[in-house]
Amino acid sequence: MPKDIPVSNGNFLLNFDLDYQIRDVYFPYIGQENHSKGDPFRFGVWVVGHCSWMGPEWEKDLRYHDDSLVTNVFLKNRSLGLELRCHDVVDVELNVYIKKIEVTNLKEKERQVKLFFCHDFHLYGYDIGDTAYFDPRTNTIIHYKDNRYFLINCYKSGKYGVNHYACCDKETPVREEIWNNAERGILNGNQISCGSADSAVGIWLHVPPGGKTTAYYWIAAGTHYNEVEQLNRKVIEKTPELLIKRTSDYWKAWVTKESRSFGDLPKSVINIYNRSLLILRTQIDNRGAITAANDSDIVRFSRDTYSYMWGRDGAFVAAALAKAGYTHVCEKFYDFCARALSEEGYLYQRYNPDGSLASNWHPWMVDGKAVLPIQEDSTALILWALWIHYESSKDIDFIRPFYDTLIKKSADFMVTNRDPDTKLPIPCYDLWEERFGVHTYTVASVIAGLRAAANFARLFQDAALSEKYDKTAEEIKGGITKHLYHKGLKRYARSGYRKGKGYELDEVIDVSLSALVILGVLPPKDPHMVETMEAIRQQLWLNSSVEGCARYQNDGYHSPEDSPEEIPGNPWFISTLWLAEYYILSAESLPELHKAIPYIEWCAKNALPSGVFAEQVHPVNGSPLSVSPLTWSHASFVWTILQYEDKFNSLKK
Fold first, then answer.
1. pTM to 2 decimals?
2. What pLDDT digit, counting tens, does each position of 146-169 carry?
3. Which domains occur in the chain, in start order?
4. Which distant-in-sequence residues (6+ apart) come within 8 Å of 419 by Cβ?
C-alpha cells in the first residue's frame, strides 16, 4: 500500500499508509533504521460497544494544511456516528511526533469514545531484545533496545499521562487477547514485556451531544532514557498545541520565502509545486543524505528498499532545490558525496544514509572481464548540480573546499575513463540500473559534469584544467553523433555496445534520450533531436484514459497483471516531466510553451489528494505504483515548473 502524508524534521520520519496507519518509523537517520519494519501501528475507535480500526469502514481524506507539513486528515464512520479531524506533525526542533485528534459526536446524546493506539515496534528493524514497559516516573509507555528509546504519552481534559495501557509479546495468544480486549473497549494494564514487545495505549473521552472533544498523543524519539524524558517534559511545558502551531508557522515561512510569478500556470499546479518542496524536505537527512524514497512496501517486491542515497537522484533533487532558492538545504549533501567518493574519483551505485556503502546488485565482471559496478551518471551529475548550486548562491567560500576533494577528483576520473579510440566513456550500468554498455543518457551526463568542472576551473583561475575539461567534453560530444546516432531510425539510440571500430546500437526507444537537450548537450531544435523526441512522444505516450509517458518500450518493471499488451509500460512522473521540459526548452513563443502544460497538469492530476507523487501509476486505473513518495518525481516537478517560469518570462519581454 503506497505511503502518504510523511511527516519529518530531518531526524525523525513517520509514514502513513492510505488507511492512515503509521507504517514506517525512521530514526535517527532518514531512511535508516525503520523501527516498525513496515508493519502497521493500528489506530482504532471504540464507542457504545463497537470498535473500528482505521480501514474500509472509514471515509478518509488524507491531506496537509496548505503550505505546511502538518497534516489535515478527515475521518468519518457513519455507523459509529463519529467524525475525526486529525493533525500530525514532527516538531521542527524536537524529535517528537505529535497527533491532535478532534472527535465530533454526530449523535444527539453524550457518549464515551475510546481511542486506541497500538505500537508494533521492531527496534533497529528486528523484534529480538525489545522491551516495552509502563514508566511510573513519567506516566508513559516506553519502548527501548540498546541506544533507541521511544516514549509514548497523551493529554486530554487538562491531564497528562497514560492511564490505559497494555504491554505484551508479539505473535502470542496474550497479544491476541489484548487486541480482542481493545475491541471490547478495555486494556488489561500489563506493565512490561520483553523480547518481542508490543504495546497499546487508550484515551477515554466523553463527547457531548453534537459536540466535540480534543485529545493529543505523541511519541518522543531518543538514544537514552534521559533524552526522551526531557523531550516529554518539553512537550508538557510548551504544550502540544503550541508545538504544532510553531512547526506549522515555520513550514509556511519556509515554503513561501521565495516570491514567484509562475508565469501563466494554473493554481492547481502551483499548489503541487509548494507541496513538492515540502515533501522533498521530509526525505532529506540532516547529515546530508538525500534518500530516494522511504516506502517499506517495496521490500515485499525486491527484498530491499529505496531508502538509500543514489548520486543521480540526489543530484536532481539538489539542483531543483538550489534553483528554487533552497541551496542551504543541500549543503551537507555535497559533504556527503565528497566523503563517499572513491579514491579513483567515482561514486558506487548507492549509499546508506549514514554514509556507508549500501547493497549493490551490479556485478564486478561482465563477459569474463573485470568492470566497475557503477553508473557514471551518478558521479557526473553531482558536479552538474554543484555548479547550479554555485550559480544560485554565488557562495565561493562554500565551493572552495570541494575543488580538490570532489570536483577535480571526479572530473579527472571522467577524463581518463574513456575508450581511447571512440573517446566515449567506458561502458557502465545505465540510469535504470538494468544494462551494461555505453548509454546516450550517461554520455550526456558526463558532458554536463565535465562542463561544470570546466566552469569551476575558470572560477578558480585554473586555465589549463578548464581547457582540458572543455576539450574532453567536446570530444565526447563528437562521439555521440558519430557513434550513437542511428541512421536507419533517424534518431539517437539509447545505448551502444562496442563492436569492431564502433558500436552495435540498441534500437529500443527510451525517454532518457531527452537528456541530450535537458542537460544542454544539444540544442532542442537540432534536427536529429527533433526526430528523437518525436519518436519518444509517438512510441512512449500511453494511448489510454490514464495517458502519461513510459520509460521505454516494453518496460516490465512493476507491470500489473491487468496491464494492456499494447502499452509500452507504466507511466512515470519523471518521464512525463521530461517531455514537458523538452517542449519548454524548445519553445520560441507562448503558444509553443503552452504545449508543456498538459504534461505538467497530468502530474498534478495523478498525485494523491495530499499532493504526493509515486514513482509510477497504474496504466489502467491511475493508482500509485512502486514507492511513494519518490523524491526524484517531486524534484522533476519543481525543476520543470521553474524552467517554465524562466521561459515564460523570457518570452514575455
1. 0.97
2. 999 999 999 999 999 999 999 998
3. 3-254 (2.70.98.10), 308-507 (1.50.10.10), 517-653 (no CATH)
4. 425, 426, 438, 498
